[in-house]
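ok so i was messing around last nite and threw this chain in just to see what happens. nothing serious, just curious
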Amino acid sequence: MTSWLRTDGSVPLCLVLSSLVVAICAEASRPGDSVCWSPTISSCTDCLRRGPQCAWCFKEGFLDGAGVGQRCDLPLNLLRRGCELEFIEQPEVQVEVNATISSTQVSPRDLSITLRPGSEASFIVAVNQLERYPVDLYYLVDVSASMQENLDQLKTVGVALSHRMTEHSLDLRLGFGSFVDKPVSPYINVHPSKINNPCSDYEIRCRPAHGFHHVLSLTANITEFTRVVKRQRISGNMDTPEGGLDAMLQAAVCQTELGWRPEAKRLLLLMTDQPSHLALDSRLAGIVTPHDGLCHLENNIYSESTRMDHPSMGLLADKLLENHIYSIFAVEKQQYQWYEDLVGLLSGSYLGKVGLFQAPNLIELVVNAYKRFLSEVAVSVAVEDKAVSRYWVSVTPLCPDGSTAKNQSCSGVQPNQTVYFNITIGLRSCPDDGEDEDVSVEVRPVGYNESTVVRVRSRCRCSCGPAGLCHDSAQSACSETPHKAALGLNKDSDRNSESNCRAGGSDVDCSGRGVCECGKCVCEHSRLGAVYGQYCEKDDFSCPYEEGLVCGGRGVCVSGECVCNDGWTGDNCGCPVSTATCQSANGLLCSGRGSCVCGKCVCSDPQFSGNVCERCPMCHSTCQSYWKCVDCHLSHGLTQDEAGHCNHTCAPLVGYLDDASGLSGETWGQCVYISNDSCRYRFQTSSDSGRTQLQISTRPECASRGRLVGTFLSVCALTVLCGLVVVAVSRLLLQKRGWTPGDPIEDGGYHPTIKELSYIPRTNEKTVTYRRDCPSVEMHIQVPKMNLDDHWQC
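result:
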């Protein structure tokens, strides 16, 4: 047996992990509540009916004192409360395929599914379209009087059809049968002279009316088929509808009598020029017994025609599908509309409109129908009648072109192509008695002689380990034993049992949160959650809350303490275990200046801040506070002996470093002091044993004054040189363009429009007043303006 696993998992551990999201949502929606718990749950069976996500703990002493319903919970919650995996009852959902049965068209042929209420399982059925199939074609012909001319056309069909079908099959067999109607009143004339010869009024010898007559079994002898058809005679009846559907059912279910081959494509061709009777029509003849769907041929005659009703469309569709038969309806155009509505109810059916029942038309109809049947692949799923209401089925085909059809079938399938059907079966509920049951489901590709049989087993009861002790309410109830009641010992035991329900030093039973029964505490169920323990002293809701959620929604409360989900810690599960949020760019935690607490950096030095202690706004001002101290030490020399002269002005201890590279700027930050001679001295502060130390570099970075002056003169000379070069290049470019100062600018000049020229004044007037000698004399000077388009003239 090969196991296919799907949906809810195949082992309890997978089911536990799949319930994680559901568990968190349940805790977040209402503290202490669970989607599995209910006051009505009193057994493991009740728990399983709550849904596929629920599990039952049958461990001894689990949640002592709590209600029996507290054993039903999500698997993840049961594990956190102390119920080990081996004590959790949660039937697995699985699919097992029997690979020992070979197949050529449909695979797999046999598989088993285990389901529990509310669960589902999926599997794939592959249908392979072969290139050439053997073909069985059975002609079912209406031989009423109106079909006389049509019956004559069949005499030449056999040979011509066998030649035409060689394009699609090298193995063709033909059969023949006839029908009229039920041989009872009011369908036929029951006058003695009309029963044996319905055509006596026309002086013609006709066959008696019959429901179905199997004339010729399927044979490869085309000559024999032609000979049998030539011998056929018509019959007659009274009403217009015929008994075609009654005859079709017998032709479908009488497989041995008709000679249907298991490996062949089975085609059933119905030829008629009238509509057919339906179920309940037989009441006109007093026939009320429903059809049983079985074969009733005696001497090749349908024997139950006068005792059983016409079959219903549902029964006929099931029998055609069950026996892998394609049905072809050849009807005259006057009845096309009636049969068009009928064919829609029968899977694997083809309707052809025939103007005249001539041999070429019938041959073309059969060939076209066969080609369509091969190119369209569909499946039908049948569930046992006793369990139809408890199961649901979904079918999704995947066609060879990659498309997903919506009508459970694929069209345009070519030979040697495979169609895949994704089939899902779900169990809604268990039987009323709660017992496990086995149900057979058959997946039938329409028209194929192979199918997939699915045996579905429902898991509605619990096994609860090897001992089978589920600790439900019926098993845990206590009662007085008969022999103790007779001796009066139960009262004494009841008095002694009260002490077993009280914690040490307490005078209240079960901590005031339960009742004492049979020497054990039965704890109450709080709206907030479960109360349990030997003395009802524990609960799962007295834990820290964060943002209105117990344990911040990231854990469950057990015995007053938060049991956090993976990746979280802390009293209220508010601290992430990961320190990734505290890492700085250099890979150090908090830049090496602090510690990671609950995913956030706590800097050890208050002057540092930021997400990873990377900021130090006061570091520069701290450097300036030590400049006076550094200046003192530098002015008295850089030897360790003379350092004592400045100690009275410096709070920290002062030390000297020969190499400035030894200063750890990454840890404490480096400071720079610039002396009067433009030398840069690096220094830093550190803390050791609670006292600040000042370390000064003895190797300054200096530049001589001479070098500075030389550098300055070089820069000036270079600047002047660059200016001269720019002037020379500019003059050279202007000379190449033929322009010298004073020449008019011909190209690129501004050319004002007429409108703009109208606003330009032609003269400029200015009044000059001389008031020193002759205040009354004023001089008016007019200076004509030059037009914009005039050139300068020297």
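not much to say yet. The first helix runs from residue 12 to 18.
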